[in-house]
Amino acid sequence: MTNPPAPVRIRFRPWLLAAVAVLWTVILLGFLFRFAELPSLTAYLGRLWRGPLVQLQIRAVWMGFHLVGLGLCSFLLARRLGVSATDLGLSFSALRNERNRIVWITCGCLPIVCALSFLPAFQRAYPMFRSSESGVFVTLLWLGIYALYLFSIELYFRGFLLALLSPLGGGFAVGIAMIPYVLTHRFGPEIVGSVPVGILLGIWRQRCGSIIPGLLTHLLIATEIELCGLWQLHR
Question: To 5 degrees, how large is the angle CA 78–CA 26–CA 35?
Answer without folding.
Answer: 105
